[in-house]
Queue: 3 jobs
Job 1
Amino acid sequence: MTTALVRHSLVLAGRSLRKTRRSPETALDAVLLPVIFLLVFTYLFGGAVAGSATEYLQYLFPGILVLTTVLVGQTATGLGIVLDMKNSMFDRLRSLPIGRSAPLVGSVLGDGVRYAVAVLVLFGLGYALGFRVQTDPLSALAAVALSVAFAFSLSWLSVLAAAVLRNENLVATVGFMLPFPLVFGTSMAVPVETMPGWLQTWTEINPVSHAIEASRGLLFGGPVTEEVILTLVWAGVFLAVLGPLAVAAYRRQAA
């Protein structure tokens, strides 16, 4: 049963990738988001926070890496699922002898191309602006993999919203707004010690903070074991909680 579910999910992920290849404009958000965030934060806050845009870019980049992957997954995945529900594609899939959760898993896996585009664009722009990895290529790949895995687990929040709301406008709003308290209540843009006490408390327990600090350590060096473990634990919690809830909501809608 598990093998069949994996096979069916991969087939449907391939369908999602073919849709993206035939309509490359659907991946436009994955190109624009890293460009906008990196440019705005670097040149708007760089001089005030670090004294120079180039120096600030070194501090900022790991946080933008996590932010980009999280937002790309949240918005795109939910919208794709809602559109498939509205055009009756999921109704046709229900008539096939496949697992009920396969369409959802396939949609999430298929959005991997968005993550890849987002990361490539981000690193390309970052290097053009002066960013440099201070560790090694393997550590940089580990930072990317960790950020994508964390974003993948959190994207099930958008899947849950899609299965419950079934409205593209609401899902787009939820998918874009909900990650903001998580992402901006971190050390992404400024050091934690510069924040007010209540925000520091939130930052210390915020799971996205651990993902950012883990990426920062992997890209620039320093102790990362604890932050990597905490990031993976949180990713597992999101998958264990949000995944079953999303599948249960989808089954109720499909009944």
Job 2
Amino acid sequence: MAKGTVWQNLGSIALKATSFIYTILIARFVSQEDVGLFYFALGIVGVISIFGDLGLSQTLQRYVPYYMGKKDKVSASRILALAIFASTALVVAVAAITFLLSDSIAGAFENPRLAMLLEFFAIYLVINQVSNICQATLVAFKKMKERAIGNNVQNALKLALTAALVFLLGPSAKIMAVAFILSFAAGSFYLLRELHRVLTQNRLAPIKGVKWCLPLLREILPFGITVVSIAGFSIIMSYADRAILGFLLKEDANVQIAIYALASSLASLAVIFSGSISAILLPVASGLAGEQNLPKMLKAASTSLRWGLFLSIPFVAFLMAFSAPMLRVLYGAAYEPGAMTLALFAMGYLFSLLGTVQGTMLAAHRLVKIELFAFIIAAMANVLLNVLLIPPFGISGSAFAIMASFAIIFGINHHFVRLKFGFHMPAGTWKNVAAGVLVFAFLFALQSMSYGFISALAFQFNTEATIAIFADKILKLAVLGVFLFAGCLIYLALLNLMRLFEKEDRAVFEKLMAYSPVPEGIRSRISSIVFWSLNASR
């Protein structure tokens, strides 16, 4: 888990750095109308994509490590073959239907410019499904390094192609879509190559014949249908907000969706490190389920949950406290109205992290009907809250709806995990949350006192070139980073004062540090400083 987390975190840092430059680029050079239209179309296609997957990617992440844990390579190979062939047929059919109905969909939203983008994104549906299958298989074999590289290849090319096409052909939603699709095609090519290498190493050759299909379908079909239902309701929560915003806000929809999209994207920084822990937990837990080692699984889940909180709470507190300055500094004053959206999404991502850890334990034991129940309730609440809150509160109402939905999923998943496996929240969880509240209060006070300074902050350059724009943003972000660092120090002090660290936490930290180039002596001193309360208790 430590090794997988390291690679996932390195990939996430690179991914966010590239995304940071990308969002500044489009906010600076592309109109809010076109940015909103691009994300509106992407949201609609996200909802459609569920029918081209049918839960096959999640089936791979659950069943491949499960059968590998049981030393059953034949069944693992059959799962892969079935997923690849079935998903290819499904996604091509869904893409063709999307292309043919693009005008009708655009007409339903009274947004004629939407039709052309949906035609482009029909191609993306096929490419994205190839990427999903490759990534799911790599995760199943715990190949987090290869998955991280593939994602970063795609993201880096998205930035490079968008910049090149915007400057050569002019900024528009169409140009953004073309660059987006081409980058996914290149990333998928890399992932396909890595997939072939992993399958060869594990001697999982394609299975000939079809006699094995029916028995295997009886095994995975109920799981797959349930997973696809979960994915469907998950996508409803992830993308229905933009569709409802587009339907209810009408003329102002594209601009508001642009603000909403960039604010929610920035909020994902809340789980930049902690998200990697839950990502590696699924194949680990599935393998332990195959070994029928419940005590070890419970221990892994408890450690994941505790470290998820450690690595996300200070970022959530910072993003909530500095939401307005962050949007103003990065994207300009026109995006500052998304401050409440950013704060609510940051809190929502924290609930999402907690719910994912609990849901992973259910999925590892094929108890996905419980997850389905949680997602149905959450999706219904999400749609209802969107309809009720968007008219009076706009994009902030939609952000509250997604936060509430994630909280519902966490509550339901935790209830059943405790009931089925006797799993309890790690000791000190609520003290940890209390520490986060204190950090937020400290950071909000700093933000209130420094907002005028941050807003007026300007760096003088002797050129007006594009590089100067990014240099200005990076320097301003560095100033904000000082406030984040102060919040992290306060949080670390509170963790030690409240005695929230365990000996195992130090062991995990030292395991993570072992993958860094830092000399052993320095690593030991850093560990002693971070966990000074454990030193004092000896």
Job 3
Amino acid sequence: MEMANNHKENKEFNSTNIIIFILQWQKPLIIVTVFAIVSSVIFSSPFFITPLYRATVVMFPTSSNAISKALLGDNDGNKHDILEFGVEEQTEQMLQMLNSNKIREKIIEKYNLIEHYNLETNSKYKYTKLYKQYDNNIRFRRTEYMAVQITVYDKDPQIAANIANDISDLLDTVKNQIQKDRAQKGFRIVEAEYEKLKSEIKQMEDSLSVLRKLGVNDYETQAEMMNQQLAIELAKGNTSGIKRIQENLDKLAIYGTAYVSLRDALEHEKKQLSLVKTKYDEAKIDAEQILPQKFVVNSAFKAEKNSYPIRWIIVLITTVSSFLMTLLIIIIYDNVKKSEYFKKKEILTLKPENKQGIIISEKDEIISKLPESTPKVVKEPPPKILNNKIEEKISPEVKLPASTLQETITKNSKNYITNLPQNMENYFNNLNLLKILLKWKWHIVVITALAAFLSLFFSSSIFIKPKYKSTAIVYPSNIAPYSDETETEQMLQWLNSKDIMDSVVKKYELIRHYDINVNDKEYYSLLSYFWGKNVNITKTQYASVKIDVMDTDPKTAYDIVYSILDFYNKKVHNIHKIKYDEVVTVCKKQLDDKQKEIDSVENKLHTLRTEYGIIDYGNQTREVARGYLRTVDGNNSSRINTPEVLKLKKNIEQKGGEFVIYNTRIYDLMREYSDLYAQYEKAVKDSKKEFTFSNMVSSPVVADKKAFPKRALILLYTITASLLFSIIGISVVENYRNKKQAIAEM
């Protein structure tokens, strides 16, 4: 029954345990909480925290970056409307551009942020602190509607608004400048090609003028008319006329092919010039004109109310944190206080009371009752019992043998220990751990302090050389994926190639710089390990490529970043050039083969023209038929030169079919040659063009503060690890001692 009641009492206590505990300690809790409220209100005031005002710009990217394609492009399927909003890819590019150091440096210079942020101009790490403050006060993010939000905090609301709007404007300036640099290079290439075509066309026209002066104005028409007139003169028997016409026909035979070739080539080149002129106009517009790269939805304006600090949040968090922390400290204190009883078993003293047989502690707490047969204790200095052992003799007036009293008190003391109210221990049972920590506190303090000292000592520059980091962020350009990978992934593959690493290692003598012994058979593996530790090339969340280089010399780290990009451009250019040179070689061979075939056919035609007099098969056949059949009109029918007609008739009969074949073939060959020549010229242009294959978004800088090692992190990890291992070791020692003592008592 009594056990049931005790269980009931414990259950009722446990259900209200925390509330009762708080009420018992309400005074310190109230004092600390009120103090926290007052302190948070005072220290969050402008006297201690500078209020910051917020300015925000919201904008969308454009879908098209090329003005010419948006405005002048003929292919409507690939044409972007200049009023169309950009999608995820353009938004990510805009975010990367906003985070570039080009915009950051312009803002820092314009507003003199070093002085504006009250930074020491003579500080060794002034730029590191400046960039950190800049990143804290100026933020960029993508909204849920695929827009970009620029948020600026500053102690001056007008400056905050100006910085936000200027960043928005600088986006156009920086992006247009990057694109304009490429567009101007492209324009110079197209311009050179355009001027070259114009020069070639001029040369062809000059050559045709010379041929016209020689009497070749329109090969086909002249050949037809001369053959008609030759037939007439033959019919007349006009020897001088025949001779004169034959001389002109000989000129046509000599210069006719050149005229036809030049005329057809000129026609083709003029078509090419028209296409190149279109590209020229587009490239010129891209190089000289600019368009905004964004649609501004909300511009920044001067804020009327500060956005930081939010005092009510500071007060609320401080109040709640102080209350909870105080409560936790009180709980620990209360448990530590209770642990003293277990440590010393608390001195129990028999005190005289009105009621018979009550054992009371020094704190006047009723422990238990003695049996009713126990005599009363007289009002004399009561006997003291320390650790359940009677240290003073019982007064003679107490009619109770000492052994009986000892046995009774020992029994009831055990009950007291067993049936102690659990209070907060049910919820916060940390007494054993606290006892161990308090017992070994000086050992733990010494070990932790020693670990902290050693971590600071061994992380100093004496043992670990500090490293500085330089970073560049780039986008790929002028490269095309080979399979399903993106241009960024292909760029990553190029940058991580072995020959780029070897080129940089050779240029900066990194084997010596990394103190690697070249005589070691595994030196290259060691070199690759150091390269991987110091050079990190990754893809960012905005589909750009980030190059991080760490080195003990900040200038070397800076130079290596640029060298990696330089070797990357050279590598891609060389590989592309090799491919283009292969195309040039193939096209040149095809051109040479085609020219040989043309020369062969031309020689055949020349023989047929000069030896057999066959110049224009159709007209000559018709006129020979008229002379042979004497169907010539007028008086000339009686003056037909029959021998010449018969001779030409025989030649046409023998060689006419051959002439038709070669004459048709020469036109086909000239057309094929013209097409091959266009391919050849394109391959030559591709082989000679000098393009870069990356767009620099953020250029590297020479670091003014080391990036490795992070001594604060090393110190934190070392202290935490030493503390944990110390507690584990102490626990093992305590368990070993307890077991040893238990064995000894047995």
